[in-house]
What does this fold into?
Amino acid sequence: MEPILKGKHIVLGITGGIAAYKSVTLLRLLVKAGAEVQVVITPSGKEFITPVTLAALSGKPVVSEFFTANTGEWHSHVDLGLWADLMVIAPATASTIGKMANGIADNMLVTTYLSAKEHVMIAPAMDLDMMAHPSTVRNLATLESYGVEIIEPAAGELASHLIGKGRMEEPENIFTRIEKYFLRRCDLKGKKVAITAGPTYEKLDPVRFIGNYSSGKMGFALAEECASRGAEVTLICGPVSIAVSDPNIVRIDVESAEEMLAAARKPFTEADFGIFAAAVADYRPESMAEHKLKREGAEDMTLRLVRNPDIAATLAAEKRDSQVFVGFALETDNEHENALKKLRKKNLDMVVLNSLQDKGAGFGTDTNKVSILSKDGTEKSFPLKSKRAVATDIVNEICVTDI
Ligand code: C5P
It folds into this structure.
């Protein structure tokens, strides 16, 4: 699984506040995650942290002035603004916030901000009274109206020893916001997604069937998540009692595994992403009785069952390289080993392992706890979450796999 920040171009702007020392940690986190980081620092920022440290960690000379004094080399803020996939200013002082809000471009950092084509985030850091001053409040509102994302400062002890709001958000949390930004950007416009969901019913006679307790909630949550990101979704579902709310989801209702496979063929062949979330019956009655089976005094009864097709394995066998297919696994022993075996056997790219050990995970519940295993052997474990939030995590992983 490729980390989402790999190869991303990030301009890290640093201004003159005590919190500048925390930017070193942020820089390290970004570089470790594979991002290319160009540090731009204001003249007063250099009073707080040395460019030597920042250049060594980022592997690039730090940009601060418009020109290199002795050579006359010009640093192009326009090029930097174009190069950046994201600009993050941390810490952002009241002075820089004011300049950004009013277009006072008297340093390299503010000119780069004005040239930035992509998203900009700022992490304000200042004393509580400066933070509460109407000019700061107004400038932040102005920046927000320009689309700048404000990473709210936390409350706590400030450099002045006063207690209040103004502490720059911790670098780890800023890093998470950056990751989330790139994941959010991963929308699915123009992508086709096919999903199987729910149980299958295998008929014994006109009134009886072999089924299971799957509610279809996980598959439906995945369909809603993909549709909300702009994908064209086809949801092939067994008998469930839930409805889809997004009009961009084409729902095909089926009953048996054989019907599900037949209905899934075309959508999965055409899909960019395929997700097999259905709980398919492994066996079905060899034949369906035409009339209701009668007791007729018999003390016992034997049913002959035959193998159902494995929908995931059948469709993934014809998978193209550009397609990403995901399956689910519910294991009771050697979970991880068995899930990986399943992934390989069925030619899947990812397997979502449902935990049976945890309360609130699995069939029928509104929550789930999963680990996502990828074909490169990497694994990510997530805490117990709502099925919709789990769907977000799964779709994020699919996007990352697709990059
Ligand atoms: O082999 P097992 O049933 O544990 O595999 C689970 C995965 O395979 C799930 O993604 C499920 O939707 C899919 N599957 C299928 N058709 C079957 C059995 C399982 O698509 N007949």
User: Anything to note?
Assistant: Residues 196, 257, 276-278, 280, 282, 308, 310-312, 327-329, 342 surround cytidine-5'-monophosphate (CB under 6 Å). The chain has a mean pLDDT of 91. Residues 261 and 311 are 6 Å apart (CA to CA).
